Amino acid sequence: MTDSSPSSTYHRHELAKDAAEVHAFHESNRQGWNEGAIRYTEWLEKSIAKINARQSSLHPIERANLRRPGIDPLLGWCSLAIHLQCASGEDTLSLWLEGASRVIGVDISDVHIENARKLTAATQAPAEWYRCDLLDTPHALDGTADLVYTGQGALCWIHDLDAWAGVVARLLKPGGVFHVLDDHPMSWMFEQDADTLRYAEGMSYFNYAEAAQGWPTTYIGDLGKKPEELSVMYERLWPLASIHAALTGAGLRVDYLGEHPDDYWNSYPNLKPEYRGLIPMTFSMRAIKA
Ligand SMILES: C[S@@+](CC[C@H](N)C(=O)[O-])C[C@H]1O[C@@H](n2cnc3c(N)ncnc32)[C@H](O)[C@@H]1O
């Protein structure tokens, strides 16, 4: 989801029709993320310092949803956590800090995975990284994960949710846990730079994809190029019911769904205080593989 600042442009786009189009959208997103991940390269020293200081970046909602008896949420039950869409690896290594014995991150962006490898070298964390479209996550990892974790701006980049849920299901051990905290689809429905909740013309909760160039000022911001000089990135709004249906269709049992006012992106920077907290900005979902 993007704003309409001068550093980015976006317009509504047709949904992906078939596997070839899904692949083409994801490949274009890979190029776009290689451009945007340069910002994460600038943040790398900070990430290294945080991990070495054992400061977890997990959100309090994630910690609460994953908590087991014991001090750290993953301690004692998670020997392997796989993080889908791991970006430059700070959240992945936070899963280790939270008690996972070993972690694996999967991401489509070459630059993100290079950063993640540098993060491992600087922290000696027990982590492995795979640079691939998550739909092509190696089958050698099937049935190995106690936890499959994703979120914080993840699902919007995936253009085949049933195939995505199939990957989640095949990576988990029986009894393994899936967790996501991500943008609530409702948070797409309003004008991002308005100071009230004003319907964004052209949005559809049920059927919406967009093509964007450039990045929101509240996130990656200006990369010093005009939007038309940057790769086209394709995003998809997934209604909560589609996410639930994809996971249950892949054989998982959804045992928790939460809707939250918390907004980790500051998506509506100009919104007046009296409009904050009126709509869900994020959701979290936990599911178990039978
Ligand atoms: C907003 S980031 C996820 C949030 C992350 N926790 C962070 O620290 O910013 C989205 C990530 O999804 C990755 N991504 C997008 N499409 C993907 C795909 N098809 N397969 C794997 N990774 C993908 C991007 O490269 C990017 O790192």
List the helices and strands and how they pair.
Blueprint: E1 8-13, H1 19-36, H2 38-52, H3 60-66, E2 80-84, H4 90-97, E3 102-107, H5 110-123, E4 127-131, E5 145-151, H6 161-171, E6 172-183, E7 208-214, E8 233-237, H7 240-249, E9 252-260, E10 282-289
Helix pairs in contact: 2-5, 6-7
This protein binds S-adenosylmethionine (SAM).
Residues 26, 29, 33, 85, 87, 90-91, 106-109, 112, 133-134, 152-154, 157-158 line the site of S-adenosylmethionine.
Name the poorly predicted regions.
Answer: none
Number of DSSP helical runs: 7
Biggest sheet statistics: 7 strands, mixed
Kindly identify the CATH topology: Rossmann fold
The total domain count is 1
Rg over CA atoms: 18 Å
Alpha carbon gap, first and last residue: 33 Å
Q: Helix amount, in percent?
A: 25-40%
Overall outline = globular
What order do the helices and strands follow?
Answer: EHHHEHEHEEHEEEHEE
